[in-house]
Each structure stands twice: as structure tokens, then as C-alpha cells.
Design goal:
By secondary structure, the protein is mainly beta. The protein has 3 domains: about 1-240, no CATH class; about 255-460, Sandwich (Jelly Rolls); about 480-580, no CATH class. About 5% of the residues lie in helices and about 35% in strands. The radius of gyration is 28 Å and the shape is elongated. It starts with a strand and ends with a strand.
Length: about 575
């Protein structure tokens, strides 16, 4: 039995009697310090070491930037003798450059230790790749979008380096919403990047895999975006490169990056568009996010114009119900005095008084046909629009009722000379023909007959997630959180505490500080802490059908389940070990 320890030593015990066969000090010295209220070596070793081809591989240390860096060690598993040792610190040995020189926007090369893994071709530590002599492959800068603020690249995968990893390590059990496991090659970080990696390859809170497929428990596709509430699903997906067919999104994506010309700070505002909705809900235009911005959308068939100054500070106006499958002109206006007006088909349809104009420019840009970032409006998720959108205009002035009526008459396109955004869909590409000439980032645009010339067509629907490229063999909802998972020859076993809350609804409640903590949240806390029963389920790997479900007396530790000799062994948060022989 081989294992590393927090004292910086690798141990080998005799499996028959537990006697020590050898030990090796992986840490460069016996120096120790306080770590989370107990003593540890300055260079601890993960408990799991990797044994392969008569070699034992492990890493000692906390970071390439502290205490002289990390040691990558290769030992003889029979004798414990050192075969090779490599030192990794703040300087890349291949190029001689500082590791920080490879920082790209908010992404930098992996520099923390983790449990080592292998695909049989390379060794991996987080996203870092090594050969079998312990040499790290040359560092490369991650690409960027070119936007200094939201510089995350589009999701990508390098086929020659696909492996299972977590950017914060396999032992991170916090379930922080900006990190998760992926079966891919690179993780994109940052406020506009963390959700992107999971749009290109299978990803989730926890994953297992066989030769062909990846099975996981992770966020539903619509939550691969800037979001706080998240709902999850169980799924099966082909490994990257083993998809049956190419998976085009078939979804129109149109975004305009924030610019000085588009800033609505301390200025009157008019937003207008021609829309032909097929569904009663959907975002027409959103500029900004959950702390600041404005949005024009449909709610139960009624157009809504909403301004936001903070999580709880909003002003919105709701108009009359629209007929589906017909063209309508909708416009939201904010005057210099703070009066907010909504016009439908040229006629006033509602008004409200805002306490102020928007005081500064939103950090997020403009999305057309959905809200793909933090939510500006009072809707759930991206709220994709289903229908056709044409003649989108934004003016930094409050157009008069007569001007709005003239634009809604439908005899000619609205003027563009005073607009800060005027989108046209009549050429080969989406273009802004206003004097500002804002760059339009359109992906897979779908066109249809518009009010004037061509328009953009949006297919909407909750399953329509632009940019999400992972095909699922099956998906299934679970009544509990999957904190532990293992794949056997005949079943996928998952275990965890009950899932008692709908996060979308709960988020609306807890966003209001005047309201008491919901009782369901206290019950969910009790379930996570083991004061309520947890559950184990057997699921068909072929169909996702639940084959059996059992109550278990303790909460599984994260990734704390294995299968051997027809039995499941579950390590629990309460410090116990469960042995279960499932019967179906």
C-alpha cells in the first residue's frame, strides 16, 4: 500500500500485516508550520500517489511560488529509492521565463499541486502536462478575446491532452460555483470565463468515465453562464472526439461589447425594436447585469422595460399583452427627469418614475435575444427569445411620443443618424450602421423575413443554449445531490444528501434582506450536515433509468465511494465507513 502524507513523507506498507516496508522523505527538509490549526510539512504530499510501469510518481509542496517551489519525484515502488527529481518554481525550465509571463487575461499556467493522473500518454497535475520523466511540457499562453475587461476566449479543447481534472484540485469539496470537474484539456477562469470550459466538453460537480463515455452530475446547460442560482442534472455524454455527429448550435448569438459610445451613464435613453414573438416570454435586449443596466423583454406576453441600479433597486414598466406571430413595435424611454415610459405599437402603454438615471456604464455589454450574463431583469435564466427581431435602435435621448409613433407606423426603417446603436441584418453580416459603428459579435446567425428586409431569427426554448456543444446520450433529474459516484459493470451508483430547494425561487427570496431565512434553506443545511438521511441510487448507464434507491444513515464524503468485490464502500462526513451490497 502506497500513500503520501502531510508530513512530507511517502510511505509503503505491507498489505498483509500493515508493517512499514519503506518510507521516503519527499519534502526537501523536515520544516513544518501551522496549517488550518495543525502542523504540516512545508512540502506535504497528497495521499494518493500514482504507480505506473514500475514507477511511483508524486509531488511535494504547496505552490511553485512558496518555500522554494515544488518537487516532482519518481521513486522505485519496490525499494523506495529515488529515480528522478525535478524542481518546479516560479521560472519555467523549458523557456527560462518567469511563469507569470504566460499569464493571459485572468488565466495562468497551473502552479499548484494535485493528485497526479494519466491517460497512458502523459502525466497530469491539474491542467499541467508532464512526460514520464517528470518534464513539464512547454508552457503556452491561453488565447484571449481581445477585450481587456471580458477577455475570456471561446471554449476550446486540445484533443491530445484530454483528461479528467478540476482547476482547484480533486480534493476541493467546496462546490464553489466557479469551479467544477471537466473531461477536457484547459479550464478558462475569470468572471466571464469560468462557465465556458463546460460548454465544450463534459463537465460537472463530479464525473466518472469508461472507454467511450463520461457520466456526471453537473449544472444544466442553461446555467453555463454568469449566474448565482444553479440547478443540476445527471447525464451521460460521449468523450471529446467520440461524438457521433458534429453538434452545431443552430442558435443565433448576438453580442455587442461595452464601449464609451454605448454608455448610458447620466443620459436619457430610448430603446426600440420590431419583434415578432412566437412565445410569451423572452429577452429582446439586455445591456448590463445584475447590478446595473436596462432590459426590454416579454413576460407572459407583455413587454417590460426595466432599469436596474443594484440587486434590489429597479424600476420597471409593463405594457399591454401582445398577439403572437405578429409584428409589434416596442420602445422604452427614460427622460432626463427620470420618467420611464413604455410604448407598444406607437401608443403609450405604461409609465413609472425612476429615482435617478443610470449613474455609470455597465461592465457587461449588450445581448440580443437573450440575457447571457448576470441577469438585468426579473426573469429566470437567459430567458431566450423565440421569434424574430428587427430594427434594433438605441438613442441617448428621450424620443417624443410623436417620434415613437412615427417609427411605429411601419412605413420606413427608423433613422440611424442620431442613434448610438442601429443594427441592420440585410448584409452578409450583422452590422451597426449608427455613427458609433459598434462591433457586432454574431455566432451562427439565423435570418428570416423581417419588418424591413431581413431580420434575426431566434428559436428560444430552455434547451436552446447558444455555444453549448456537449451532446448528451441521456439526462435525468436526481432528488438528491450526487456527492459520490462510481461506475461498475452493470450500474452507475450515486449518493448524497437530499436536494430540497429550487435555487431559482430561493434566490429571489434571499435577495430581499428584509425577509427571514426560508425554512427550506435551514432544512437543506441540515441535509448537508447529515442531520437528515442521505440516499444511494443505482442508475442504468445505457438509459439513465433509476434501477434502485436506498436510504443511507450518513452523508457521503465528497468523492468518497468505491466499488470492489460486489460491494460499495462509502466514507462519510461523520467519520464512519459504510459497506453496502446493493440488491435490486
Amino acid at each position: 500500500v502506497y500513500f503520501g502524507a502531510s508530513d512530507g513523507v511517502v510511505y509503503c506498507l505491507d498489505l498483509s500485516d500493515g508493517e512499514l516496508r519503506w518510507k521516503y522523505q519527499a519534502a526537501p527538509s523536515v520544516a513544518q508550520h501551522m496549517f488550518f490549526e495543525h502542523m504540516e510539512a512545508t512540502h506535504p504530499v497528497h495521499g494518493n500517489v500514482l504507480v505506473m510501469n514500475d514507477r511511483l510518481y508524486t509531488v511535494a509542496g504547496r505552490s511553485m511560488f512558496t518555500d522554494g517551489g515544488m518537487r516532482f519525484l519518481i521513486l522505485d515502488p519496490e525499494s523506495g529509492e529515488l529515480i528522478a527529481e525535478k524542481k518546479y518554481d516560479a521560472r519555467d525550465p523549458a523557456s527560462g521565463k518567469e511563469v507569470q509571463e504566460f499569464v493571459s487575461w485572468l488565466n495562468m499556467p497551473a502552479a499548484m499541486p494535485d493528485i497526479l493522473s494519466t491517460d497512458g500518454k502523459l502525466l497530469y497535475m491539474l491542467s499541467a502536462a508532464f512526460d514520464f520523466e517528470g518534464n513539464r511540457l512547454p508552457l503556452e499562453k491561453m488565447p484571449t478575446s481581445g477585450n481587456a475587461d471580458a477577455g475570456a476566449p471561446e471554449p476550446f479543447v486540445r484533443p491530445d491532452r484530454v483528461h479528467l481534472f478540476s482547476p482547484t484540485g480533486f480534493t476541493d469539496d467546496t462546490w464553489w460555483h466557479r469551479t467544477y470537474w471537466i473531461y477536457g484539456s484547459d479550464f478558462i477562469s475569470g468572471w466571464q470565463g469560468y462557465f465556458r470550459a463546460g460548454m465544450a466538453v463534459p463537465a460537472g460537480r463530479i464525473l466518472v468515465f469508461d472507454d467511450d463515455q463520461v457520466f456526471g452530475y453537473g449544472r444544466k446547460p442553461k446555467y453555463y453562464r454568469w449566474t448565482t442560482p444553479i440547478e443540476h442534472q445527471l447525464f451521460a455524454a460521449p468523450k471529446p472526439g467520440m461524438e457521433k455527429t458534429e453538434q452545431p448550435s443552430g442558435q443565433t448569438i448576438l453580442e455587442i461589447a461595452p464601449t464609451e459610445a454605448l454608455s448610458p451613464a447620466n443620459t436619457p435613453l430610448t430603446v426600440e425594436a420590431w419583434i415578432r414573438p412566437n412565445r410569451q416570454n423572452g429577452v429582446v435586449l439586455a445591456h448590463g447585469g445584475g447590478n446595473l443596466g436596462y432590459t426590454l423583454y416579454l413576460d407572459k406576453g407583455r413587454p417590460v422595460f426595466q432599469l436596474r441600479w443594484g440587486p434590489q433597486a429597479t424600476t420597471k414598466v409593463t405594457g399591454k399583452r401582445l398577439a403572437l406571430a405578429q409584428w409589434h413595435h416596442v420602445a422604452g424611454v427614460v427622460t432626463a427627469e427620470g420618467t420611464v415610459r413604455l410604448f407598444v405599437d406607437g401608443a403609450p402603454s405604461g409609465r413609472a418614475e425612476a429615482p435617478q438615471l443610470l449613474a455609470k456604464a455597465p461592465m457587461e455589454g449588450i445581448s440580443i435575444g437573450r440575457d447571457d450574463r448576470s441577469l438585468v431583469g426579473d426573469y429566470a435564466g437567459a430567458d431566450p427569445f423565440d421569434g424574430t427581431i428587427d430594427e434594433v435602435r438605441i438613442y441617448h435621448e428621450s424620443l417624443s411620443p410623436a417620434e415613437i409613433a412615427s417609427h411605429a407606423a411601419g412605413t420606413a426603417p427608423s433613422p440611424t443618424d442620431s442613434a448610438v446603436l442601429a443594427l441592420t441584418f440585410d448584409g452578409e453580416k450583422v452590422r451597426d450602421v449608427s455613427p458609433a459603428k459598434n462591433a457586432c459579435d454574431s455566432t451562427d446567425p439565423q435570418f428570416a423575413e423581417g419588418k424591413f428586409g431581413r431580420a434575426l431569427a431566434f428559436s428560444g426554448g430552455e434547451e436552446a443554449v447558444p455555444g453549448y456543444r456537449v451532446p448528451h446520450e441521456w439526462i435525468a433529474d436526481l432528488p438528491f445531490f450526487a456527492r459520490a459516484m462510481v461506475l461498475t459493470g452493470d450500474a452507475l451508483y450515486v449518493a448524497g444528501p437530499l436536494d430540497l430547494v429550487n435555487e431559482e425561487e430561493l434566490y429571489k427570496e434571499i435577495s430581499d434582506p428584509s425577509r427571514p431565512v426560508p425554512a427550506t434553506l435551514r432544512e437543506q443545511e441540515a441535509a448537508f450536515e447529515g442531520r437528515k438521511p442521505s440516499y444511494l441510487a443505482a442508475v442504468s448507464p445505457e438509459t439513465g433509468e433509476m434501477l434502485g434507491r436506498w436510504e443511507i444513515p450518513a452523508t457521503p464524503a465528497f468523492d468518497g465511494m468505491i466499488a470492489t468485490e460486489g460491494r460499495l464502500w462509502i466514507s462519510t462526513q461523520q467519520g464512519t465507513l459504510l459497506c453496502i451490497k446493493p440488491t435490486r
